[in-house]
Design a protein that fits this description.
alpha/beta, Rossmann fold, 4-stranded parallel beta sheet, oxidoreductase
């Protein structure tokens, strides 16, 4: 069982220590961060504390179709790429969106992928 108050304290401590990372800074505008699969909205209050002139955070509560599933057609794969392509940082909350090598190679702006679990 997860102790939510303990996890919340750790996340709060981590978010308090987030600083701009110069090698992630885009030449124009803020660093674009995508937060995937946060259907409970747990991360949003933490990310909202970031300076909006430095970070632009987008939250996606719906789970994307698995890019590497045999039944996923090319049009759906292209839509996954189109959604994620603008982002420099992608944070997956629950490991529901797999990131196979082929998908990562199609995301030229991606500099940092944050995941949980063993599947990515």
């Amino acid at each position: 069982m997860i102790n939510l108050s303990s996890a919340s304290r750790r996340l709060r401590a981590c978010s308090a220590n987030i600083r701009p990372i110069s090698n992630l800074t885009m030449s124009s505008g803020p660093i674009k961060i995508a937060v995937l699969d946060d259907y409970q909205g747990i991360s949003e209050p933490k990310y909202q504390k970031l300076d909006p002139s430095t970070y632009e955070v987008s939250f996606f509560i719906d789970t994307l179709s698995p890019y590497d599933h045999p039944d996923t057609i090319q049009d759906v794969k292209d839509k996954v790429v189109a959604r994620l392509e603008p982002f420099t940082v992608i944070s997956t909350m629950r490991e529901r969106t797999p990131f196979p090598k082929e998908l990562i190679s199609r995301l030229p702006n991606l500099k940092l992928l944050l995941t949980t679990g063993n599947r990515n």
